[in-house]
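Morning F.,

Quick status update on the modeling queue. The single chain you submitted on Monday has been processed. Sequence for confirmation:
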Amino acid sequence: MRLVKIALGSVNPTVGSVRSNTDRCIRMAHEMAAADVTVGAFPEQVIGGYPSEDLVQWRGFIDAQHAALARFAHETRDAGTVWVLGFVAALRGHLYNAAAVVHRGRIVGVVPKEKLPTYNVFYEARTFSRGTAGQRDEHLGAPFGDLVFPFDFGTLGVEVCEDVWSPDGPMRRRCYAGAELIVNISASPYRMGVMGTRREMLATRSGDNQCTLAYVNSVGANDGLIFDGGGFVFQNGRPMAEAPRWREQWASTVVDLDRTLRLRTENTTWRNDCIDARETSVKPAVIPCADATADRSALAYPGPANGSFFLPSTASGRSARQDFCDDLLDALALGIGDYFEKTKAFKGIGIALSGGRDSLLTLLIAWRYVQRRHADLEPEARRAKTTELMRAFYMPSRYSSDHTSTCAKTICEELNVPFMVVPIEEAFNREADVARTMVGGELTGVTEQNVQARLRSLRMWNWANTSGMLFLQTGNMSEKAMGYTTIGGDLEGALAVLANVPKTVVIYLLEYLLETHGFEGIRLTLSAPAGPELAPNQKGEDELMPFRVLDACFHLYAAEKLAPVEIVRALTSMFPDIDGAQLGAWVEKFTRLFVQSIYKWVQAPLSLHVGNLDLERERALQLPVVETTEWTR
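Structure tokens below.
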């Protein structure tokens, strides 16, 4: 047996906090070393924080990372553990997203990322150069490039994030060169449904390359990107460990590298492919590492927890619904919490609570953050902390109903959130009169609705400026996509929590929270049709279309990139209960309003990214503001 203990350290870095980020790694490294960890892994760009975007153009930022890496090596010099951690390396006019291998106080080698994602939320090729097969150079006195590292426990290969997402990544080349353990350090953002894809992909890479694969992910939120943390260890395709997510922590497991070697010996296909590659491919450089690693004599063989190699382990019994809802709620809560804490600009969190679904869910997510952040407090102390940190305001006009007022008041009483009623009717009359004077006539119905929304936003901004608290924007993605929102009104806020959450998902999450918490405020809110209450008897689905159809249109047009005629065909099979002509009219309405509303998106606040589609123009869906739908006809 060749037993090795692998530790995955999910660290929550802040972009630019080079000293603090390194301190976090050092504290965790000391804990790992005390536990006789053989190889300890930290996330991609953990020293400088990710995504650093154009901040890497400041040479001082890069130099600070180089100094911090040297400090990490010095502070961990007495440990036998081999460390892998991410930073930005500057070399001969190039910047590299790189992984450093550190052992016994020195940087053993630096390996650059080869696959630079420039799609969706990623822009790495804008600032970084990619590593190449066979690359060999020197960085700060250490070997740099396409490297593998033989230690006394076995041969180590390292790579960075996107390298593992390609079946033709550097893992194959390094495994053929002898690497038995591959460590992938990652900062992979959370997306709805990503866990299943990530798990399956990593298992496939481990099986295809007949290696032990350790994957560690960053945790926390920076700007609108949310990282769920955790990690995996797979041995030749078999799951060995899955680390907890959503919190800064480290987890470890023991594997027998002799098993990886034996399975390679038995796999004739892998052996033949390896021989072919040796004859035709560029080979990584081998960097011998003679210093002794951590003591492995006391490591226990990784037997199954249930004591049987033949019987399945006991499952958690969680449903797909629970996994989906809790993951998404945890992501959004982490997004709020890290924005609130890392900016260091706010004293608390405030929400304009309408008594409707979107603002209710936003309130519940902010409350979830407070409960989890202060989980160590006793229940009464945690309720007091909620009262200290959160505020909700209900601002009725002539169109606001007693029902929504009751909904807003009830949920705030249940959550212990301070609640204030601030009527806007008098201000609405004054502002409408001024607007009539300016236009020399009556206002349109839409203008009267917008006046109400803008008054509420103005008051929230005035309160936020004076109180120093974070004003959350509450609108959902479906209505934002159709421009069913007001510039200077409900589109306003410092952080948009639900801007990339479709309306059907908003309702689904509220139903789940009602099941799990039983809050009367949720039940009351869901008992009435959704509507903005800016005009008499206003219902969102009447003015737009059924939310299930709207979200289907959004996905098919914006995600699948189908033409309107194709969308109608798809909807006809999805909704056979709806007349085809009606579906056609809704598709035409959606595409027209979608394009006409792009100018609103660019004025919206920073939003939390939780899916593969995003209406923040600088993130996933980059569309010209000035365009038409003429091509669709």
